[in-house]
Amino acid sequence: METIESTLERYWGYPALTSSQNEIINTLISGKDCLAILPTGSGKSITYQIPGLMNDGFCVVISPLVALMEDQVNDLKSRNIKAVALTGPQSVDDMIRIFDLFRHGDYKFLYLAPERLKHDLVVDFLRKANVNLWAIDEAHCIAQWGFDFRPAYQQLSSLRELHPAVPILALTATATEEIITEIIRALGLSSPEMIRRPVIKHNIEIHIEQREDKTDRIRAIARAQKGTGIVYVASRKRSEQLAKSLASSGLDCAFFHGGMDQKQKQKALDEWLKKPHQIMVATSAFGMGINHPSVRFVIHTHVPDSIESYVQEIGRAARDGNRAQAWLIYHQEDIDEFQRRKNGQRINQSQLTKFYRHLCNYFQIAYAEGQGQTFGLELRDLCNTYHLNHTHAMAALNVLDRLGVIALKRQFGIKTKVQFVAESHDVYQAFETNQGAGLIGRHILRLYGGIFQTKIGIDLNHLAKKTGLEVTKIKEALLWMVKGSLIEMEQFQTDLQMTFLVPREDKRTLSPHSAVVERYARRMTDQLKEVRQLVQNKTQCIKKQLSEHFGQPLTTQCGMCSICLSKKQSINRTGADAIASLVLSLLQEQSLTITELRENITFDPADVDAVLTHLHDSNQIGIDAVNRYFIRP
Questions:
Q1: Mean predicted confidence (pLDDT) in 126-146
Q2: Pick the residue with more confidence: 40 or 317?
Q3: CB-based burial, 352-383: b 16+ in 10 Å, e otherwise
């Protein structure tokens, strides 16, 4: 029979686990529920992957993070472990095919978005399946008053009913006592084993400083650290500009942002993981689920969106247990911009309803339709079409995603817009000469009303399903129509993929969520206040401040943040000033040797010598022929 150690060695090649990982795994293997609160980078995923492999049946992992689920599935596959993710876009046929894999294909991991538990087909399959473990990632999302509440997590209360004897693992990096209580209650955990570690890593120095010369400061930090690092920036454009600037000064740099296609992202990530001293300049799109053990520094060049995201991002450093640094470098304009951004992210029920209507109209979604349809979205084009603020629109999309109305995914793609420009009778006559193009063209005309009046975005994958043809054939037909002057076509890059999870009903779609929407708006106000307090704090130990935010108060100062270090320097400067005052006072009366000065001053002799050197170098005192110090006139 496989042991924890042999499973770890066989699939991961690791010699040992951390004590926290061992505790969690042994708890689950014994059949007990577990609630684990571990900081970012603690290797939470392996705590359910090992027991999921060791026991008969398969493990179900619930997570709201589509990109993370896909990364983990790909990682498991690379280790010859069978896994699949059931997120947003799959059709009923796709789900049936996936469930057959688990019935007959010895699959060990099923990753689910929480919204999938609303589907009767999914629930019926899980009720009859041989589930050996429920793993709930980001478990804090179940708490209604938490910072990241997601209504779909309320569906998880049914898991205990489906398989009462199957253990549940609830995982999170951030949970106050109130949220812990809510997780236990909502999931029906039975006397769970509590495994809790400090959210803020002890081996990360945290520095927050206001500077105008950000780029020079980043260069200095990178050269001093001499290791792998991440530099977070606010925009895609800035990531490319800063990477180029740092590279021109001799540093090994690359960039990463949401506008890159998947191949570009993977290449940049692979090189960063392999190179020992490369700096990745990135937007917040970078880092989720990435296991780089030896990141020596993380630098934020802008004010982060929330305390939670900031702690998550700096937690990507020092996974190897060695010391690392986190820097937040800002100037006043960054604080002003942050305030504008948070104000733009506040959205009320009426604003959200209006945005949802625009979104449905943009994709030509009719009333009572749209469920299961997936589209590529270029946010700028949507904003230009309806004269929307970009920040406000992105905030609305995120809220709709959290409410389970849509599933949002950051993914590169190409969007196609088409308008028929020939007269209708000429169009139909041309279709008679090319049966394949005619079939596609007629489907386009049936699916997209108003396409003779304006350019409308069309979904090539949806057309392929409707016609039974390959997407390549759809593209060939469109090019034939362009050449025949039947249509005008525009193609442009998209960086968001969006799936409608419920039928369009406008107000009725969103009205059940009004209380949650208003709570999100209040949360934006709270985040503005919390982050400003962090950035502008000049007196309190930063780690104490952050730990208190997560309900884990520290009893002592950390001694290694910029506030603690500045206090030490202040104490040192105070001591030096006192020594200098004593030296000058004594020398006012007579010249003295260094030995005589040391005898009359109770401070550490090394500190006295350092002050004497400073006073001499600054021409405040001199040394005579018999090595006596005197005050210069």
A1: 90
A2: 317
A3: bbebbbbbbebbbbeeeebebbbbbbbeebbb
Q: Of the segments 329-338, 550-559, 572-581, which one has the largest average pLDDT value? A: 329-338
Q: How many CA atoms lie within 13 A of 423 on its CB side?
A: 3
Buried residues in 565-578 as b, exposed as e (16+ CB within 10 A)? eeeeeeeeeeebee
Distance (Å, whole) CA 511 – CA 277: 51
Relative to beta strand 406-420, strand 487-500 is: antiparallel
Domain boundaries, the chain: 4-196, 204-330, 347-518, 562-631
Do 204-330 and 562-631 have matching folds? no
Q: Where are the alpha helices (DSSP H) in 140-200?
A: 159-162, 177-187
Question: What is the CATH code for 4-196?
Answer: 3.40.50.300
Distance CA 485, CA 628 (A): 99
Topology of the domain comprising 562-631 = Arc Repressor Mutant, subunit A (1.10.10)
- In whole angstroms, what is the distance from residue 404 CA to residue 166 CA? 27
Q: For residue 337, what are the CA distances in angstroms to 43, 304, 327, 535? A: 35, 11, 19, 13
Would you identify the CATH topology of the domain 204-330?
Rossmann fold (3.40.50)
HSE toward the beta carbon, residue 189, CA cutoff 13 A: 27
d(CA 30, CA 192): 12
Sorted by sequence, the CB contacts under 8 Å of residue 591 that are 6+ apart come out as: 624, 628, 629, 630
How many angstroms separate the CA atoms of 538 and 566, rounded? 10
- Alpha-carbon Rg for the chain, nearest whole angstrom, is 30
